[in-house]
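user:
I keep going back and forth on a fold encoding question. Separate attempts, laid side by side, tell us more than any discussion would. Would you put together a sequence-and-structure record for a protein of your own picking? Write it directly below this note and I will take it from there.

assistant:
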Amino acid sequence: MEGLKANLGLSNITLGTMRFFDKSLSSNEVTSLIEEAYSIGINTHHSSSEYSSYSLYTAALKKASCAKNVKHIVKMSAPHFEDNIFSSKLFENRVDNALKVLNIEQIDVLQWLLRSKPINDQDRLNTLFKFKDEIEDLLLKLKQKGKIKSVFSFPYSVPFAEKVEKLNEIDGIISYLNKEEQDYSKFATKKPFIAIRPFFAGALLKDSKNINERIKSCLDFIQTNKTVISTVVGINSIQQLEAFKN
């Protein structure tokens, strides 16, 4: 675990980019946020082409002086909701497109989602078992080509996590972890883990008399899980960054 953690070099806090558009940020404001975050040690970003903020984020990133030094966690599904089966070609095309749009040579963490429509474990586990060899071969191929450095699965459920973590090329689990959502805590003690939604969609910060202390308490709780290597936090202003300065 320590070897992968050192190899990835992710910051303890990952900048979540999902809400930039919803918060009506301008491209210049996002660029300033990226640069200020980098200046306090937040060198890792979480993004996805599924987010409404994606074009805003990628445009702002291109203008950032630190762009070449940013680490990337990229959320990507295969199969996606509308896909009939798992397709190695389609999956690699999606990886290639992310590399092009982000203007990077390698994705540090590929956050992989195996989806079905509707989402259900029976269909997803059937796909996992049926295409296991093809999935492992492709993920290894993407690593050997240098397109991705690691793969973390977003499992949607504990039963799926228990199966997918056994795949040869799955390096870790990325999922919800906070004081209220602890279903995945057992995975955050034995395998590299990236935490999402540390404040329970903001519910843990409500009615707080000292917001910075509450944020610290939530993040400290996550760090009690010994294999957490980064926590994704939606940060939408330079003012909000104050809570994450050392």
